[in-house]
Every structure is written in C-alpha cells, then in structure tokens.
C-alpha cells in the first residue's frame, strides 16, 4: 500500500472563505483519491469570536477551536496554516506561521502593503516552506485550457489582453456596512477583485513592464450607515492600460464595484496573430476560441468549447463529459495542487500563484495607484 502523507490544517478565519476552504479540503480528500499521495484534515479553526468559531467547528465537525492563532501554531500536528481571515489579518499571522515552520496558504491580496508582501515571500523562501497565494481562477478548467492553448502557440504572438471585473455591492443605495470595499480600511476594488485581473494577466501572458492611463474614481461620496450619513473616499472604479515585457502585448483593465446588475462578472479577451479567445466566469465551463484557418471560410467563426471533455484540464478527476464544474471547484483544484506539492515536494509555480506572485501583484497595484495619482506611465 502506498504511504500517504498526513496533512493537518489549522485555519484562521471562519467566514464564507473558511466555509469554501473547508469544503475544498474535504472534497479534495475523496475526489483526488487514489491518485493523491496525501490525506488531509482541517484539524482546527481560529476566529475572534469564540461562539462563532465553535458554531463553525460544530457545523464542519472540526476537533479544536482557538481564539488565539498563536496557540494554534503551537500544535505540532498542524503542518499547514490556511489564512482565510480578512485582508488586514493576512500579514502578521501568516508570517508567524512561517516562523513556526508551517506550510502556508493565504487568501489574496497577500497584504495591502507591498513591503509586507515581499517580507512574507522572502520569509517563506528562507524557511523552505511551501507557499500559496489563492488566485483560484487559474484552476477553472476553461481558464487552464486557455493557458494551454496560449502556451502551445495556437494563438501565435499575443497582441492584446482585455480584462474586466464588475460587481455591484457599492450601488448608491448601499449602506457602508454592506459594501466590502468601503468598510475595510485600506482595501478596495483594486485589492479584492482587481488583484485577480492582474494575476490572470501575468498567468496567461507574462510579466508586465509598465502601467499607464490610470484613472481612479469614487462615484458615491456620501453613504448611509448605522450612524447616519458618512463621507466615503473608497475608490470604486479603476481603469488603466499596461504593456508587457515581451515588447509586443498591450492590455486594458477595468475594475468596478458599482456596476448595477453585475453581481460578480470576471471576463477577459485575448487577441493574437493566429486567433483569439474569450472567457466569462458567468459561463464558467465555456471557452470561446476563434482561429481563421478553418477547412473552409464558410465555417469560419467563433467556436464555443465546453471544457468538459475527458482530456480537458481536471476532468479526469471530476465528472463524465458534458457535466460542468462550479465556482467552488477552482478552490478545490487549487488546494489539491498545493497538497500535492507539499506531499511530493514539487514546486507550486507556475500553475499556482506563490507568495512571490502575490508580492508582484501588490507591486503592480502600487504602480496603478501612482499612475492614477500622477497621470503618467509608471515602469515596473
């Protein structure tokens, strides 16, 4: 019988991301078996509210509850630290977990400060622990199929990358307490959803050389709250362009938190010398591809690919052909990849984002801010 490595997870955060990751680990345990070389258990959860953390543990059958993550890190059986807490709680707890010798997973953004993100990356490298920054869209089958098409050269030289991420929690009638990018100081649409766009650009196309044409906008400057009307300075829209280090490819990004009717719409289009493709997370299993060299011009056009064939990414793990996956499967596939890398001592990159990738995303967000503030192109 093959020896399987036991991986025990200590999770910081018991909100909706904690629910997703707990579900992810549990599902990965049985779906990736028997190919996997690991067993995984979420052994403990830690939250600021003891009552809420106990309720979370009871719901998911976890054995241990903490309200102080330092105590959780003392448990020698815990070898993976999963940080799904709020943005402001990413830096110090993850750094402490690294110092305790735990392999580390951290939700994006890695930190709201580039200097802190860099410190987290360098500390993890020095400690020789595996580190994953949770850009889960990389692990959607259709997105991974796009990655393989591009890397195979099927689109030729990439000319342009266009990406949009639209949400609507910040519409005018929303109160401060209900708008995630307003109620969290220092965070914003650039961090919570804009970071996904930047990571996707780097994952599919490559390193970014410069940011230009930046415009940052606060559309709703006064908001209702439980304490009455308050001023709001949170940036609710970012628009900018980019140039890639390959010297050819350009890009354009739009990120908006006040887009009525767009609950969470993440999409991109890529145009190359031999063809194009487009993807929209609202049609999560579909990749649209255009290649001009068809047997006859009469059938030339966009092809709608359902990424559910047996030879498509991840589908050997999941369902029979034609049966699609959902949003949560990106997290499951990502976490399984991380567990594989820990158990078999394989590199996290390039298929998943490391803390280095998380740091670079934060550096690019800083460049976006500078471009918006100074009204000029900013080199990276």
Task: Output mean pLDDT.
Answer: 95
What is the terminal separation in angstroms? 51 Å
- Supply Rg: 21 Å
Task: Provide a count of the helices.
Answer: 11
Q: So what's the overall shape?
A: globular
Strand arrangement, largest sheet? 16-15-14-13-7-12-11-8-17
Helical residue percent band = 25-40%
Percent range for β-strand residues: 25-35%
Low-confidence segments, given as residue ranges, are none
Number of strands: 17
The helix-strand sequence is: EHEHEHEHEHEHEHHHEEEEEEEEEHHE
* Largest sheet geometry: 9 strands, mixed
Oligomer class = single chain
Summing up helix and strand content along with how strands pair, one would put the structural category as alpha/beta
Summarize the structure.
This protein is an alpha/beta fold and 380 residues long.
Describe the structure.
This protein is of the alpha/beta class. The chain has a 9-stranded mixed β-sheet with strand order 16-15-14-13-7-12-11-8-17. The protein has a 6-stranded parallel β-sheet with strand order 3-2-1-4-5-6, sandwiched between helices. Strand 4, helix 4 and strand 5 form a beta-alpha-beta unit. The longest helix has 20 residues.
